[in-house]
Amino acid sequence: MKIVLRLIFYGTFIVPVFGQVSAQELDRTARDFFETWIVKQDLDTANSFFDQNSISNQIKATARSKVAPDINVSQWTKSVLRMWLLQDHGLVNKLGHGDPNDPRTLQVSFVGPMVKFESLDQALEKPAGTDRPYTIDVVKPDIFPWVKETEGEFWITPLKFKHVSGDQVIVGWSAKNGKIVAFTWLIH
Amino acid sequence: MKNKGFLVALGLVLALQGLSVSAKAWEEDFHYGLTKWLAANAGFCPPHAEAVAVYAIAPDDDPQRNALELTKRRIIPLGDVSASRIVSRWHFPSLIDVPARPTERYVCSGCDQARSIFVTAANPNQQNPLLVFGEGLHLFQDSWSHEGVPGTIGLRDNIFWAHPELRGGPLRHDADLTHLYPYSALLSASQVYLAMLTFLNRYQRYACIPPERWDDIKADVENFIEADSKLKKRRWFDDTRVMYSRKDFLDRVNLPER
């Protein structure tokens, strides 16, 4: 295994990198994912960035109903990605707002219309103190209890869409394979 | 005359306390819009009614107190307990301090913790009672929309604050939407109105007109609560004939357009 070790400044963090995916590579992967998801709105390709096993474990670990463990993970991730691309976010909430415990959640894939974005800068609020639409923050590996590969580093990229108030998307990445191992959001 | 109106309103609001509710945090239609409308009806002079409403939304506007910002920047990545305490102090009043299991940190509506900020407006040496009162209303109002056991998403559960499971859970906006929890919204509005009347009785310099009786405005409040789309909320605010400095505040509400 090739070991990469360096320190890189990302957002407010000095990121030590041990593993197969460097912080720079992760940054490129994250941008590619965000462009594919938000600007190109190619949800099939965006879906390939997810580690489906980890996301399945996430859903099971946080399940609060009998619905969630049986949900089709790939369909769920696609419908969740679509949530912040729709013009009427109130309608999204009416359909369960991506909650895997709500059987209406997958219906988000069948409603419209969508918002079009020419760039990530147009779509996303820039975090304070940065000139980028998102930051990459290193976190302790135990932050995602459902991820089995606990060695190495994990990153999170928080996102906030300009047209949706009260939602903060959190994307969790594994430094081992550069895949998305956690995808959730905060509401207020 | 003013005192008589206050006492009548007080009695009616106290009667509402017997309602059984479960609750969660409101959005800008409540924190700003309804708060201003209630303040105008309670007798605040127009500039002071506007100030109370702007102060009531301030804990959401301020990145140092905004629950999302603190959770995103400090609670989740750093496990920052002090940030969790700030979120609790301004949005999730609870008898139990963090860190603690969510089931131990029940968020209590209208309790002493929920009143802990705005009641200090009555302190004799208070320099800016209107500011303290208005900002304190935010926590008081949120105590109904966030009432219950905080929901969890599997991250930092012992310091994480979110919408309660019994009000739609942490992954959706349900807890903040008045039409889904009408009893909570009505009780919250009535208690805020009572707090305003009490405040004006203490600080009469902020009052310009006698207060309306709660019974006379209750139906309007119920119509506000029942409005389940942005269009209906807009119509309600258009009919109030109250001026709002924030023209776009309904744009940020998570209701369907129609």
How are the SSEs ordered, and which strands pair?
The complex is a heterodimer of chains A (188) and B (258).
Chain A: E1 7-10, E2 13-16, H1 23-39, H2 43-47, H3 52-61, H4 73-83, H5 89-94, H6 120-123, E3 137-139, E4 154-159, E5 167-174, E6 180-187
Antiparallel strand pairs in A: 1-2, 3-4, 4-5, 5-6
Chain B: H1 2-16, H2 28-42, H3 46-61, H4 67-78, H5 81-91, H6 112-115, H7 129-145, H8 182-202, H9 214-226, H10 230-240
What does this molecule look like?
Chain A is of the alpha+beta class. Chain A has helices at 23-39, 43-47, 52-61, 73-83, 89-94, 120-123, and strands spanning 7-10, 13-16, 137-139, 154-159, 167-174, 180-187. The radius of gyration of chain A is 16 Å and the shape is globular. In chain B, 52% of the residues lie in helices and 0% in strands. Chain B has ten helices and no strands. Chain B has helices at residues 2-16, 28-42, 46-61, 67-78, 81-91, 112-115, 129-145, 182-202, 214-226, 230-240. In chain B, helix 1 packs antiparallel against helix 8 (182-202), helix 4 runs antiparallel to helix 5 and helix 7 packs antiparallel against helix 8. The longest helix of chain B is centred in the last third of the chain and has 21 residues, at 182-202. Chain B is globular and about 50 Å long. The A-B interface holds A 58, 61-62, 64, 88-91, 93-94, 96-99, 101-102, 128, 137-140, 143-146, 156, 158, 160, 164-166, 168, 170, 184-188 and B 25, 27-28, 60, 63, 66-68, 71-73, 76-77, 79, 91, 152-156, 162-163, 165, 169-174, 176-177, 229-230, 251-257.
